[in-house]
Amino acid sequence: MAFELADILPALPEIILSAVALVLVLVAAYGGDGAANARRVAHLTLAGIVLAAIALLSMTSAQSTAFGGMFRADAFADYMKLLVLMGSFAAVFMSVTPLERDDINKPEFSLLVILALVGMMLMISANDLMSLYMAVELQSLPLYVVAAMRTNSLRSSEAGLKYFLLGALSSGMLLYGASLVYGFAGTTSFAGIAAAVSETDLPAGFIIGMVFMITGIAFKVSAAPFHMWTPDVYEGSPSPVTALFAIAPKVAAIALMLRLTYGAFGSIALEWSQVIMALSVASIVVGALGAIMQKDIKRMMAYSSIAHMGYALAGLAAGTHEGAFGVMIYMTSYVFMGAGTFAIILLMRRDGQSATRIADLRGLSKTQPLFALGLMVMMFSMAGIPPLAGFFGKWYVFLAAVNAGLVPLAVIGVVMSVVGAFYYLRIIKIMYFEDSEAPLDQDVPLANKLVLGVSMAVILLFFAGLNSIMDAANTATMALMAPF
Amino acid sequence: MIEALFFYLFAGVMLASSVMVVVSRNPVYSVLFLILAFFNAAGLFVLIGAEFLAMLLVVVYVGAVAVLFLFVVMMLDINFAEMRAGFQKYLPLGLIVGGILVFELVVAMYGDAFGGKTAPVVSEIANTTRLGGVLYTKYAFLFQLAGLILLVAMIGAISLTLRKRAGVRRQIIAEQNARRPADVLEVIKVPSGKAPAAANTGKAEE
Fold first, then answer.
1. Pairwise CB contact (< 8 Å): A108 & B159
2. Exposed, middle or buried by CB within 10 Å (0-12, 13-18, 19+), for A270?
3. Are the C-beta atoms of residues A185 and A206 closer than 8 Å to each other?
4. Which chain A residues contact residue B155 at CB under 8 A?
5. Residue A128 Cα, gap to closest chain B Cα (Å)
6. N vs C: which end of chain A shows fewer Cβ within 10 Å?
7. Considering Cα of B198, then B202, then B203, then B206, what sign does the dihedral take?
8. B156 to chain A: nearest residue by CA?
């Protein structure tokens, strides 16, 4: 068996990123110590991400497979990979200066991010149980390390350790489920698995394996009841790392969930949709109620992201074309809301120290009116107020759920978004109607301003570009549901 | 005939060394007996034609894992006498667990759990060749991915443990080589019958 160029070309963006990562290992090792080298590696990482994005956009989005069917490129993969690339770009871009100010001058940060990015993109393109597992590991391992990046902080080490232990547990579940699925389907390829089972001919062991696999991925998307690690890891990790966690890996994990459920388990939608529904309801409730009492904004964002994943899963539970479409619109708005919100969380510093209590935002409207406005837009969008981006995400997800007959799920979702609106609006109240004792540092890096500006523009003008986004998401959904 | 002889040799030594792993008082001896057991298991694998597994066993278990055990045993200050104190207490539980394992093994061997399947026939092509044939062609993608994951593990381990500590004495070879006798040596003339000057005594002794 010889490899043709056509066998590896669909993976060109990943190959470019891996090559950049390997070069960056050398740059990081021989570029000297200190901030200058960390900054250089970060900039090269950004260049690599842009290069990969160009490669991604310039390639045909027709469905094709690479590496003997283990890797699948199609319009869905392109759409999700673009989101992941944008999220990672924003996270690395706005973390350069904050990391320097926190004295974490390690070139390894960007290096590990780019390797995790390769893992995320391969997750999105996974077309085989083996490539799925390897991609998940490649994505998770660097993230465990960057969570513990601040080695002199007990909280950061604790976050890294917790993330690692629960991540290892979830990988074990994923692997166990995959082995059962393989055992009963007799093949590891998604197409083969989909062909091997049907609603009428379904071994019990296969269902057990499927539930284990979904559980394993639910850990990665931090859906309740597998969310316990999220608040601690978000709070303990350095803020730039939290920004990364909150954006890109979630998109990749949701994409993998879509691939697995619509692809490999596409012929038994009735079975997995109950599981996803339970996850969705639990996440929505836990996320909405858990965030209310939080005093730290990073912890609050953790619960908020749990709730967001719950809403996204509500679309997935529908199991229809409309559902997957809704999930994609939701994840699009989620990436920009996350990037914009964390652009502001990263600038929450007082006297050179990171200050991430919600109370630290008091009086932001007077000291930094533009940022207060930005955070207000993000919070309104997360609460789902029209005509902002977050509203459309929720709209299409709930529409799909109702049309698929999941009315109770949609009702719970709507009620809980009202609860969620409480804590989003509380932040706005704190910024605009309470006076601060000491203002936050005024010295804000340009990168944060840029990321915030772009995110705000996208969220405010989402309705204007809605048609083209919907077209792209529609094509992507068709590609996802297309037979192999 | 000669195969049977080697089988009993390997199996016998392996059993004996496994017993020694458990009963020897010195933990370092335990690890060394463990290595002996691994070697004999590798020999058994060679006898049934699984030479790749035998190589893996030697490279991975003897080369890496057992050496790691030795490091742990020698570096960590563990009081093994204390750990042995609970031996009597945990003996019944250990026997029960061991008994269950033996029972399962017997059931698997004689209860036809494998549906009458026996060990696969050793083919003409050695299994290392077979594995190599698919590992670098059909599974090249996964192979490369595994490589990236190992790279991540290496970078992660280094970046988490390597840190600048103050007051560490490091050997700087370039500086050692650049030392000249004129900078560090002082020749003192000591007139016979007199002690050298008091201020220089310390330096001369260094």
1. yes
2. exposed
3. yes
4. 25, 108, 111-112, 115, 142, 145
5. 11
6. N
7. positive
8. A145
Per-residue pLDDT of chain B (206 residues; tens, 9 = 90+): 888 999 999 999 999 999 999 888 888 888 899 999 999 999 999 988 888 899 999 999 888 888 888 888 888 776 666 766 777 788 889 899 999 999 988 887 777 655 665 666 666 777 888 888 888 888 989 999 999 999 999 999 988 888 777 777 888 888 888 888 888 888 888 888 777 665 554 444 44
Chain B partners within 8 Å of A122 (Cβ):
145
Task: Enumerate residue ranges in chain A where pLDDT < 50.
Answer: none
Q: Verify whether the Cβ–Cβ distance A138 to B148 is below 8 Å.
A: yes
Report the residue of chain B nearest A152, measured CA to CA: B163
Return d(Cα A472, Cα A75) in angstroms, integer.
8
- What pTM did the predictor assign? 0.86
Contact B141 A67 (CB under 8 A): yes
Name residue B136's amino acid.
Y
In 3D space, the residue among A481, A482, A379, A464 whose CA is nearest the CA of residue A430 turns out to be A379
Q: Which residues of A touch B149 (CB under 8 A)?
A: 134, 137-138, 141
Asked whether the beta carbons of A64 and A10 are under 8 A apart, the reply is yes
Closest chain B C-alpha to A343 CA, distance in angstroms? 26
Domain count, chain A: 1
Question: Which residue segment(s) compose the domain that A70 sits in?
Answer: 5-480
Phi, psi of A311 (to 5 degrees): -65, -45
- Residue B81 has a pLDDT of 67
C-alpha closest to that of A223 among A158, A148, A151, A170: A170
Partners of B156 on chain A (C-beta within 8 Å) are 108, 112, 141-142, 144-145
Which residues in chain A have Cβ-Cβ distances shorter than 8 Å to B140? 3, 67
Return the half-sphere exposure (C-beta side, CA atoms, 13 A cut-off) of residue B4: 1
The sign of the dihedral angle between the CA atoms of A383, A332, A217, A161 is negative
**Three-state secondary structure call for residue A349:** strand
Give the number of beta-carbon pairs within 8 Å between A and B: 67
Residues 6+ apart with CB under 8 A from A384: A390, A391, A393, A394, A417, A420, A421
Q: Which chain B residues touch A135 with a CB distance below 8 Å?
A: 145
Tell me what pLDDT residue A7 has.
80
